[in-house]
Amino acid sequence: MLKPWYVAALLGSSAVMHAQAQQQPATPPSVVVAGQRHASPWFRAESQHLVVYSNTSNSQVADLLNQLEKLDYMLRLYTQPFLKSSDDEPRLTFYYHDGAVALNPLGVRQPANAIGLYNSCSAGVQGYGVRLAPGDEEGLSALYEAYTRHFLYRYTDIRAPISFIDGMAHYFASVRFTDTEMVVGRTPANLGRYLDFLGNGHRYSLEYKDVLEQNDSRGQNYASTAGIKLEFAARSWLLTHYMLSTDENRKHLVDYLSAVYRDVPITEAFEQAYGPKVSELSTTLWRYRLQKQAVLTVHIPTLPAAVMNFDTLPESSGEFVLTEAALKSCPDRKTGESLLRRTAEAAARYPANAYVQRVLSRAQVDWGNPQDAMPYLTSAAGKPDAGAEVFYLLGEAQLRLSRTDAARASLSRALTLDPKSAEAASALYQAGMKAGTAPDEATLQAAIAAWKNAHEVNTLARQAALAYAYAGETPKARNALKLMAHNIREPELAVWAKTWLDKLAAGVDQAEVVAEMRLQPASGTASREWTIANSMVMQDVEYNAGLQDARSFLSQQSLNPSSPDKAVQATFDTR
């Protein structure tokens, strides 16, 4: 399953040196812009791997895409041993906002200090990021962090340990590019502040055993759960930096992650691969950070520039951009029905706008009466330029109205127009299962295609696992199930997957598989990972630690007011 570790040669070459990157003028990205009279503040841009909707500026999005395409290129080099990509997958849809308030229309509860969201469900995968002040380092780092997580979930089978996923995300969050160089290994500002904070004798929340055993939320911290997650991120980053630091360590990384995939306990897998006992890791990594942690400049003349197209949106369409995003985020019923009411009211002003009517149709199909969407969708599907989304929505409406044969025809047409549509493939699978007969080859292949085009979505992995099991492709079924079982971010599906791994090992007949295939996860099933402004969390940590120090001092003074020098001193170097 594993490929050679190509990046070892890259980082071991004479091009690597201990240095800071020299800032060079960026190569002007290739941009094509299509104009629009009476344009909305929102516009659409696309590059090799991303589609971006934004209300910022063309120049800011062009810079963002140019940076993310370079990051994508480097991630492919670093993950060569684990890469599952053909580099021909659907682009990630990303919404780049001018303020955090733009996340509110999604109708999901935001944690404090959220500046980004990664949402994956059967309707697809979407990213949301907030533009901070121009030139703000934390904003760029947050985007790199989120994209690295997305990349690992989409293009590899790595689902555990989350300390490695988190560590890689922060390792690449601090990467910076010029035209031909990458600076890697820089300490993320707020993670470094937290590690320094601990080094100054303050109370810690986690041992490295906790980090390896994927505890990122249980314990006590000056900033509650947010502070624990910050400490988990800081320790995960340092651990990952160590694991990527030398040719030898990078070879051990392959052994480590392969052992975790084989279900070797994570702490045992680490000790087998790297040598140091987990109980010694705190000292090992403390010395590593002080003595050996390096910032490297890598000369890479092949770093790509983004090839971009920009399209402005008409004013009548702009207000529906985030509504469509919310509808595609697999909201719960209360949110979905609210979106339908608001969309129907707003769309009445634009009866001739095809985009607006498609958004309304999606709301009607998902959260209202699908029959209400049929007149528009039937008419739109009859036009020569009808796109894949029209046929998908028409097929979904027909499916919900129990017109199974018509639904399969419409959904097949949608996949012909857009073979990369995970939601169309998933709907075609569901239509096949509602046909009342044993699943045919087209139904099984639809389930597999949906997962291949959205490799990070667990509900689609569930469909693919059952399709593989029905077809007798046990190793592929087991792989899909293991990825779900290893993903602690979705605990209910992880438990389901472990149950079915046991069934697969014991032997399961096709009748039981088909019965399970006919069951569908509840609507609103989605995986959401937030990106947090760690600078704000660090401020809370320092503020609350200061208050605790002050209270401790005053308490000591009250115990021995006549002789403060003899008062028992407070200590914070314990857990």
From TrEMBL:
Cross-referenced InterPro entries: TPR-like_helical_dom_sf, TPR_rpt
Question: Which PROSITE patterns does the protein's record reference?
Answer: TPR
Q: Which UniProt keywords apply?
A: Signal, TPR repeat
**TPR repeats, residue ranges:** 388-421
Under the heading Gene3D superfamilies, the entry gives: Tetratricopeptide repeat domain
Where is the secretion signal located? 1-19
Q: What is this protein called?
A: Tetratricopeptide repeat protein
Organism, by scientific name, is: Duganella vulcania
